[in-house]
Write a structure and sequence with these properties.
The protein is 32% helix and 15% strand. With 365 residues, the chain is α/β, with parallel strands linked by helices. Strand 6, helix 6 and strand 7 form a beta-alpha-beta unit. The chain is elongated.
């Protein structure tokens, strides 16, 4: 009997629990069972809260400051035919370049050519040179002589002791020397011998250098040939058609320069032979000049007067001047060379001021 009582108590407890439980909502969502049937999901005991945004509440942006109304002129279309005017009256614009005077050695006045015969620069010539070099308004390019440029930097180096002379200085001064003889003396360029011997002896490379004269080089009584030996030493070869003599002038004496001198003399003698053969008419050449067996070659170094390492170009100009002026007994010294630097510079720049030299043409530099 006690067992039945316990069973009855258990049933009552179960009923009381079922009565307290909330009813199951059949309309709620269901989930699928493994066998494919849908079973109701577990009821939720808490009520879901509504969605709340976690961002800050919206605030209106401040209005931007209005910029002033700046209207730009319309750009012209590519096919517009209206011209675009440019104001060129700006005071800051640099002035136009001054013309560079150009002179011809063949048109220099006799008074200026006579001043070239002196070996010493006058006080007036030195004043002109100093004025030109110190004038800051002048550009570096001062003038052109037979299309050879003469610059301030070039003259500034020239007057310094022991300074090397460049091709422009040598060519410019030799052009002045040739002008003093009115065409009787032919002064070759420093590039003549280099072109004649480039890659070996080549007469065709220089055949056109004397094409303006029917007799070629033989149209002149004297010829001056400056030579740059290995771009470190200046030497000179002079040719006298009257005495049929070739002379090699060297301001230094050494075994290497002696060997080079013999080569230079034989090269120039061969050039004369080819010039005689190629230039026409042959009858215009004196018969005595055609026999090169009677021509003699001399090596003259003037007792090696050079005492520094950069005055060989000045000695070349001194040797050339003595030969052109017929001073066969001239023996320049190192002291003469140092003073002659100023004379070369004054002669090159003297045609700019106070010389009465007329410009043959000008060009903008």
């Amino acid at each position: 009997m006690s067992g039945d009582a316990d069973m009855d108590g258990l049933i009552r407890d179960v009923r009381s629990l079922s009565l307290k439980s909330p009813p199951i909502d059949i309309s709620s969502s269901s989930v699928d069972d493994p066998d494919g049937t849908k079973s109701p999901s577990r009821p939720t005991t808490q009520k879901q809260k509504p969605y709340e945004s976690k961002t800050a509440p919206f605030t209106a942006l401040k209005p931007r400051r209005q910029q002033p109304n700046r209207t730009r002129p319309p750009r012209p279309s590519p096919d517009s035919t209206e011209p675009i005017l440019v104001d060129s009256s700006d005071e800051g614009e640099p002035p136009s370049a001054a013309p560079v005077p150009s002179f011809s050695s063949q048109s220099l006045p006799t008074s200026y050519l006579l001043s070239l015969t002196s070996d010493v620069a006058t006080l007036h010539q030195k004043h002109i040179l100093r004025t030109v070099l110190n004038d800051r308004s002048r550009k570096d390019l001062l003038l052109r002589l037979d299309n050879i440029p003469v610059t301030k930097s070039q003259l500034g180096r020239l007057i310094k002791p022991s300074a090397w002379l460049d091709d422009e200085t040598v060519n410019g001064y030799l052009a002045l020397l040739g002008a003093t003889t009115h065409g009787d003396v032919l002064c070759m360029s420093t590039f003549f011998y280099a072109s004649l011997t480039k890659g070996g002896y080549d007469y065709e490379a220089v055949a056109r250098w004397t094409r303006r004269w029917p007799a070629g080089v033989f149209a002149h009584s004297k010829v001056v040939v400056p030579i740059n030996q290995g771009n470190y030493h200046w030497v000179l070869v002079t040719i006298d058609m009257t005495t049929r003599t070739l002379v090699y002038h060297d301001s230094m004496s050494s075994s290497s320069t002696g060997s080079f001198g013999r080569t230079a003399l034989s090269t120039m003698k061969r050039y004369l032979s080819d010039e005689r053969t190629h230039k026409h008419p042959a009858s215009s050449i004196d018969a005595s000049l055609r026999d090169f067996d009677v021509w003699r070659c001399e090596h003259r170094n003037g007792s090696a007067p050079q005492r520094d390492g950069g005055s060989c170009g000045v000695f070349l100009c001194l040797f050339a001047k003595a030969f052109v002026m017929g001073r066969t007994d001239a023996r320049p010294s190192q002291r003469d060379a140092d003073a002659f630097r100023m004379k070369i510079a004054c002669d090159l720049v003297g045609m700019l001021e106070g010389s009465g030299v007329d410009k043959v043409e000008t060009e903008c530099g």
